[in-house]
Amino acid sequence: MDPILKQISNVGIVPVIAIDDAKKAVPLAKALVAGGLPVAEVTFRTAAAEEAMRAIVREVPEMLVGAGTVLTHEQVDRALEAGARFIVSPGFNPDTVQYVLSKGALMVPGTATPGEMEQAMSMGLEVVKFFPAEQNGGVAKLKAIAGPYRALKWMPTGGVNAKNLMDYLSFDQIVACGGTWMVKKELIEGERWEEITRMTREAVRTMLGFSLHHVGINCGSEAEADRTARTLCAIFGFEYKMGNSSVQALPAAECTKTPGPGAHGHIAIGTNSVDRAVYHLGLQGVKCLEETRKTDGKGKTKAIYLDGTFGGFAIHLVQK
Question: Where in this chain does the record put each VOC domain (predicted)?
Fold first, then answer.
């Protein structure tokens, strides 16, 4: 996958911004970064778009900036000169797509029909926008037409919000979602930066969906692991299950036959996407141990340990 698309996928949510006052672009970008979303699509729906992009690129370098609602060659040139790293259009115009590609830039055109999607694929594109998503049938439509297009991924925008976000992101052919709910016009005009950060942080938490998965208990032998698991099952009615390296009292505990990471054991935290969780935790300075990464047949991470211990326990992320 293209490195910029990979970064967008890791972030997971792309705020779509229409800004009337370029002076507010930098504090807005900083509010989004503080909330955990260092990417934005600045749309050419306003006259301030180009200046806003320039300001963000110059003063908030950690923000990945794209240009949206790009309709003409002139807008493509202005966006790229302003520092935009990717171009997004509301519809599929082969001429605009080809022009962007001729510039060596990343293009994510809007599509709504299989015909448009096939044209995009014939031009070598691996990700297209699905717009307006909800009005065009939402994730149900994408799942219905996905069969012939397994090599294509979508970035739905239009009607995506905090309530239906995970309906989209739980489908593995969706690379990210575009949204406006954390950057609404009244929030920007009112300079409610703390509110934007709060809503952004909530969106990230919803996307990652952290929850306690199970507790791992280090035992010195298979016999000790078996006794511990059976005791927990007897007391709490958990399901007993013998495994290769542990004995489980499902869904709460995993009793390891030999001591594993952590003095006492480990805490498994479930997440909607381990790969996105690793990226977002990295933004907070939390490191993961690459040598512990386990992947599935598609290359997606199933589990990985965090660096360090917490109260004598190691912590690892697991895919829900």
Answer: 211-320
- Strand-pair partners of 238: none
Same domain (yes/no): 58, 169: yes
Amino acid 142: pLDDT: 97
Same domain, 115 and 203: yes
Enclosing domain of residue 9: 3-208
Residue 44 confidence (pLDDT): 97
Last residue of a domain, one of 179, 208, 237: 208
* Residue owning tokens 């952004």: 200
Condensed to tens digits (0 to 9), the pLDDT of residues 228-258 reads: 999 999 999 999 999 999 999 999 999 999 9
Domain boundary among 193, 208, 223: 208
Rounded mean pLDDT, 123-133: 97
Residues marked as catalytic: 41, 129
Q: pTM score, two decimals?
A: 0.94
Residue 298, pLDDT score: 86
- pLDDT for residue 82 is more than 90: yes
Residue 169 to residue 155: CA distance in whole angstroms? 10
109-121 tens-digit pLDDT? 999 999 999 999 9
Q: Among 284, 177, 203, 207, which Cα is nearest to 32's?
A: 203
Rounded to a whole number of angstroms, the CA Rg of the chain reads 23
d(CA 16, CA 172) in angstroms, rounded, equals 22
Kindly state the greatest CA–CA separation across the chain: 73
Which residues make Cβ contacts (< 8 Å) with residue 103, sequence separation at least 6? Answer: 76, 80
**98 shares its domain with 234:** no
| DSSP string computed for 210-270 | -EEEEEEEE-SSHHHHHHHHHHHHHHH-PEEEE-SSEEEEETTEEEESS--SSSSEEEEEE
Q: For residues 287-314, give the mean pLDDT.
A: 95
